[in-house]
Amino acid sequence: KGNGMIGNIYSMGLALQALEATSKFYAPRNWDCAQAFSVVYRHDYRQPMAISQVLPALVGKPYLDAASLQCTASTCTPPALWHCAGCPPCPSPLPAALITVYYAITNKLQGKHFHFTTSVRVPEGSTLLKVLQEAAKKKPNIFRFQVEQTFWGPMVVSIHGLAANPDDRTYWKFLSDGNALQEGVGIYKPKNGEHIQAVFSTY
């Protein structure tokens, strides 16, 4: 794509690895990777699978080189492992403000068609999965859903009793204001006033 995206944010890691590894075979010009890498730099990767695929491209080291890397405590201790021992007590975080997210589910593909909408209030910074959970609490007979855990995080496989089926090549597609989400429900964080759609789709 013109902005440097290769497929979507989940496919970027493997695509960059492949392009970097095969760059010697390009002719007559080199691959300009600046745009693609800028996409990766701007994204906040959180899923272990996505991180494990994008890191080799970022450091220019294949997995086979991992055993030869030299690390020290000063260079390998991430901020997440720092503690407050010996420091003044850490202040308690302030409660997050509530935001409103509009949520709709639509099926115009199989069986009895349906379209339902609702709005839910969730703490700012909540993931889309939290929005789905609140909608299901509010109207369980309409917005009930099921997820499966994958290496990429939770994946929604059924909404309103309608399950995705790989044999039919069907799945639940999530959109924000009409645009397909590039992150899963366990990572994506809707903004206040955002319109989220779950549309039963085929690929």
Task: Please describe what this structure looks like.
It is a single chain. The longest helix is centred in the N-terminal third of the chain and has 12 residues, at 48-59. The strands form 2 sheets. The chain has a 5-stranded mixed sheet, with helices on one face. The chain is an alpha+beta fold. The radius of gyration is 21 Å and the shape is globular. The protein has helices at 12-21, 34-42, 48-59, 73-76, 128-138, 140-143, and strands at residues 98-107, 114-123, 145-150, 153-159, 162-163, 170-176, 179-180, 195-202. It starts with 11 loop residues before the first helix and ends with a strand. The chain folds into 2 domains: 11-66, no CATH class; 98-202, Ferric Hydroxamate Uptake Protein, Chain A, domain 1 (Beta Complex). One of its GO terms (biological process) is cobalamin transport. Cyanocob(III)alamin binds at residues 8, 53, 181, 203. Residues 125-197 form the Transcobalamin-like C-terminal domain. Belongs to the eukaryotic cobalamin transport proteins family.
